[in-house]
Fold this sequence. Notes:
Layout: H1 3-31, H2 39-48, E1 52-55, E2 70-76, E3 78-87, H3 88-110, E4 114-119, E5 143-151, E6 156-158, H4 159-162, H5 168-180, E7 186-188, E8 200-203, E9 209-210
Parallel strand pairs: 3-4, 7-9
Antiparallel strand pairs: 1-2, 2-3, 4-5, 5-6, 5-8, 7-8
Helix pairs in contact: 2-3, 3-5
Bound molecules: zinc ion.
Amino acid sequence: MPLYRATSIIRRQGSLIVAATLLALLSGCLARPPQPPGAAQCLAELNSAGVGFEPIVVPVAANGCGIANAVRVRSVGAGLDQPVVASCGLAAALARFEREAVQPAALRHFGQRVTVLRHFGSYDCRRESTGRDRLSQHAHGNAIDLAGFQLADGSSVTVKADWQRPGPRRDFLRELARRACSYFSVVLTPARDATHHDHLHLDVGPYRLCGG
Ligand SMILES: [Zn+2]
């Protein structure tokens, strides 16, 4: 093969590689959710609060689902019964709620700490169950469904079993549902409707509703 032809093939392949790389970078940028203001500070807050987490990327889907500043969280002080994929803002709110509200209330009501938060998950690409035609805050990782707590002695408090039954477990849950409004913008309880009979929906989205 003449030298000039070999050189031209190499040049062409080189251009193709450059073009492919640019395209991959560009599509990566387009799919990556824009980072919200304070994204870096939020991650720093998780670090200083001792939250067990790692940053991840949850791209924006065509239907609008996706998480800006996403993290995978294993613990927020107390452990989580399963890792959760959520926005950093939700993880930070959950960590503050755990430290300032959950643990002090557990010590007051039961004389012991909460060791595990039980939940039904955060990120879920779905629309609201309210009948309004908009994405649920779960679709942005801004909501978590909290099902209950495990205490240091291994016993459990669950929304499903204890929300209605009079006693210290019910008082603990109802106190936390009230306190949660200081940390989350929307708090939905079993008082809301049958779909919430077994969890507290806590979210840091743009709407405001306390205990409905
Ligand atoms: Zn929910």
